[in-house]
Amino acid sequence: MENYILSFRAPLNALLQRQQIFEKLAREYPQLGPISIDMDDKQYVMNVHAPGRLENDIQNTLLSYGFRVAFLKADLIKVLDPKVKIA
User: Fold this and answer.
1) Cα–Cα 20 to 30 A to 34, which of 8, 26, 41, 58?
2) Domains in the chain: boundaries
3) Of the candidates 41, 50, 43, which has an alpha carbon nearest to the alpha carbon of residue 10?
4) 22 and 35 in contact (C-beta within 8 Å)?
């Protein structure tokens, strides 16, 4: 399975209500990794570590809770297989 960092553009209220967003996403998608909200070029960007391309599901979930977000991009995370030994 491939891991991704999914990036969403989020409004200021997402930053102010980030704890609620984190709790709702953790409840809906327990497989998600760390979630952060950063400021990038005067826009707030929410980054979600996900074990797959879940951007549509995450966006629809947040929209259903009243958080307006827009998907920006998905970056593949290179992960080493734990069965592979490094010399």
Assistant:
1) 41
2) 3-77
3) 43
4) yes
Distance, in Å, from the CA atom of 3 to the CA atom of 62, rounded to the nearest integer, reads: 21
User: 45 is written with which tokens?
Assistant: 């960007």
**Closest-CA residue to 59 (of 77, 49, 43, 72):** 72
pLDDT tens-digit readout, 41-63: 678 899 999 999 999 999 999 99
Q: How far apart are alpha carbons 48 and 75 in whole angstroms?
A: 10
Per-residue tokens: 69: 């977000």
User: How does residue 15 score in pLDDT terms, banded at 50, 70 and 90?
Assistant: confident
Fold of 3-77: Alpha-Beta Plaits (3.30.70)
Q: Dmax over Cα atoms in the chain, in whole Å?
A: 50
